[in-house]
Write a structure and sequence with these properties.
Number of helices: 3
Order of helices and strands: HHH
Helix content: 55-70%
Distance between the termini: 22 Å
Largest sheet: none
Radius of gyration: 13 Å
Number of strands: 0
Length: about 80
């Protein structure tokens, strides 16, 4: 996210729709987004993340959709 264009709400909505559309279980996907957002919020408090303009839920949606769209970027 650092150095990228400002967050586009239409793109964010499309990413969230894509996550839900491709999910086997919508509830678990929603819980994953919430859990990731909670982790990012605590990272923000620790001063580990510099980009405070993006809210934790938005960051979680972006990260999870990137993982869904580009699984080859994941370690392992």
């Amino acid at each position: 996210m650092p150095g990228s264009a400002p967050l586009n709400s239409k793109e964010l909505a499309q990413r969230a729709e894509s996550l839900i559309r491709h999910a086997n279980n919508r509830y678990l996907t929603t819980v994953r987004i919430a859990f990731r957002a909670k982790q990012r919020r605590f990272d923000d408090f620790d001063g580990l993340l510099d980009d405070t303009m993006v809210k934790p839920v938005q960051r979680a949606i972006i990260e999870l959709s990137d993982e869904q769209d580009q699984p080859d970027l994941l370690p392992g």
